[in-house]
Write a structure and sequence with these properties.
The complex is a heterodimer of chains A (293) and B (289). Chain A is mainly alpha-helical. Helices cover 81% and strands 0% of the residues of chain A. Chain A is extended, with a radius of gyration of 27 Å. Chain B is mainly α and 289 residues long. Chain B is built from 13 helices and no strands. Chain B is extended and about 75 Å long. The chains are: A mainly alpha (293), B mainly alpha (289). At the A-B interface, helix 1, helix 2, helix 4, helix 5 and helix 6 of A face helix 1, helix 4, helix 5, helix 6 and helix 7 of B.
Chain lengths: 293, 289
């Protein structure tokens, strides 16, 4: 510690008084909120049947499981080992491609629906509270019901296959993106809108020339973020028979094909991270170009 | 505004078009290169979509048939009723909430110290930064359902596995979000603490944490809300909560009960949404989003 110049005594007295007052007010509230969180955690622990002892006893199983699925690649002939480990690569790559395509189509269809509905749900563009209310509640229902539940229902209605995955993701994405989009629309600068209404533009023209230029880069950025989430979601939709790599993965886990589990999991993680990095680049460019404007 | 008045305004604006064109040529010029780029991008997007639709055999006939069947389902869902299983469902819903709450809380508590490690302005070591970030990415890119399958192998079927699954997948997400919040935090308070003789730990405790804590708390609340939604599905693989009933009832087409369950979930999520919006406002002030 360097030598510090001590404060003049009266200044120090004033400061320490202030500090005592400021810190004296806080503990009561902090303690109360901690107590509330602790009680809630206890209740949640009871509801979720948390058993720390079972956890402590079985944590060895977790590491054992990790050891079992650890890639069977030795140092003597690593290339052959990797080839044996990824014996199903062509099939898995095709399924992964299907997964990404499901996510793409789901995001696109859901994005288009959310795009249309977001303008209807935005408070600054639609005067009628009834229309707005209906649009908002519809988006909320689409958003709250998880995509897997939609997939379960759609599998019965449309039959097994990737189309079900696309539709399930599309419905859920409509809700999620519709909400985000309408929030973007509600935060726009209203002057261009007023200018266009003042020169007699129709509602569609106002949206096209006054709203769209302001929101498009944000929309694209949110849609890309959603695409990334949907790739992760599409990877598990196969659990309920909605196409993609999920079915193969579930079979590997259920049948204890340990090497396959790590091989497919590795492929999924690699794909998700690649898409994550790529969309992040594009999003930075999109928001960057907006700031430069 | 009445349609007739907007028509007159329109006519007036149009009448002056030639002079407007002469006065503001830049506004009327078409940018060929930009337009071409847009056309190419749109064609690529549509082309890929068309390929996907063809690959997945998404014919209009199939879609209409399915929609017809969905319509029948919608009729069968009315009126939603628990058919005497209300208390079972309520218990499962409580389990779901417990899973979401404890999973989020555990993830947040575990992720906070790791996020400090991953933040460039706290630990300036690029290798630590890179390693922690990639580790978090791996945890994040594994879906909750996959984590649930893994944890079921360890602690058996039931909600505990679900809670651990949520904690694991959120740990990755929180680590990333928290470290980004810490990196964008105002550095002046920290500099002030160091300038008046504080150590590195003092800087974090008094210069950093007061600034980022409200942001982190708001993110945790947001995740609790979204985890309530994901906790409703982990029952599908047997990890507790309302999802196991939802799956079974959909499989046997007990659609009245399904509709009731969905309404219960909607009401719960709306309630949590309301509470967490108020809490967020209280924590970060009225400017909260």
């Amino acid at each position: 510690m360097r030598g510090l110049t001590p404060l003049p005594p009266e200044r120090e007295a004033a400061l320490s008084g202030l500090y005592a007052a400021a810190s004296g007010a806080a503990p009561g509230r902090t303690l109360a909120s901690f107590a509330v969180v602790a009680v809630l955690a206890l209740l949640a622990g009871l509801a979720a049947e948390v058993r720390p002892l079972v956890f402590a006893e079985n944590i060895g199983k977790f590491t054992a499981y990790l050891a079992q699925i650890w890639p069977p690649v030795g140092l003597e002939h690593p290339l052959e080992d990797v080839r044996a480990w990824y014996w199903g690569l062509p099939k898995w790559l095709a399924l992964l491609g299907e997964t990404v395509l499901i996510a793409y189509l789901g995001t696109l269809l859901g994005g288009l629906a959310g795009f249309t509905l977001s303008f209807v749900a935005a408070a600054n563009l639609v005067r009628s509270p009834v229309v707005r209310f209906v649009a908002k509640r519809f988006l909320e229902v689409c958003r709250t019901i998880p995509d897997v539940v939609f997939a379960l229902l759609f599998v019965i209605a449309f039959g097994l296959g990737p189309m079900v995955g696309v539709l399930a993701l599309a419905v859920h994405t409509t809700g999620a993106l519709g909400k985000l989009f309408s929030e973007v629309v509600e935060n726009i600068d209203m002057r261009p809108v007023e200018g266009l209404s003042a020169s007699g533009a129709s509602w569609i023209e106002t949206v096209r020339f006054a709203v769209l230029p302001q929101v498009l880069s944000n929309f694209a950025s949110y849609a890309l973020l959603r695409f990334e989430i949907n790739v992760r979601g599409a990877a598990v939709l196969g659990f309920v028979g909605a196409g993609g790599i999920g079915q193969e993965f579930l079979a590997a886990i259920r049948n204890f094909y340990y090497a396959d589990v790590s091989a497919i999991l590795g492929l999924i993680i690699l794909t998700v991270i690649c898409i994550d990095l790529a969309t992040e680049q594009v999003r930075h460019r999109l928001t960057g170009s907006e700031e430069a404007r | 505004m009445s349609a007739a008045r907007s028509e007159t305004l329109r006519a007036e604006a149009r009448a002056d078009l030639a002079r407007l064109r002469a006065r503001y040529p830049a506004q009327f010029r078409t940018d060929r290169a930009a337009r071409l780029r847009v056309v190419v991008i749109v064609c690529a997007v549509i082309g890929l979509a068309g390929f996907g639709a063809w690959q997945f055999e998404m014919s209009p006939a199939r879609i209409f048939n399915g929609l017809g069947r969905l319509g029948t389902f919608a009729v069968l869902m009315l009126p939603p009723s628990p058919e005497g299983q209300f208390w079972t469902f309520l218990h499962a819903l409580g389990e779901t909430l417990g899973i979401a709450f404890l999973g989020t809380l555990t993830a947040a508590i575990l992720a906070f110290p790791v996020a400090l490690l991953a933040a460039r302005n706290v630990v300036p070591n690029p290798f630590a930064h890179f390693a922690v970030r990639r580790g978090l990415d791996v945890m994040r890119s594994v879906d909750v359902l996959i984590w649930a399958l893994i944890w079921i192998n360890v602690v058996g079927l039931g909600p505990f596995a679900g809670m651990l699954a949520i904690a694991c997948s959120d740990f990755g997400a929180f680590g990333k979000l928290f470290s980004e919040a810490i990196e964008t935090c105002d550095r002046k308070p920290g500099e002030g603490v160091v300038a008046s003789g504080g150590s590195a730990l003092h800087r974090i405790r008094f210069g950093l944490i007061p600034g980022v804590l409200p942001v982190l708390a708001s993110q945790v609340l947001y995740f609790f809300e979204s985890n309530t939604r994901s906790a409703t599905i982990i029952g599908i693989v047997g990890a507790g909560g309302i999802g196991q009933y939802l799956t079974e009832l959909i499989r046997v087409l007990e659609l009245k009960q399904v509709a009731f369950l969905v309404l219960m979930i909607l009401a719960t999520v709306a309630a949590i949404d309301w509470v967490s919006t108020r809490l967020r406002r209280a924590i970060i002030g009225p400017a909260a989003r």
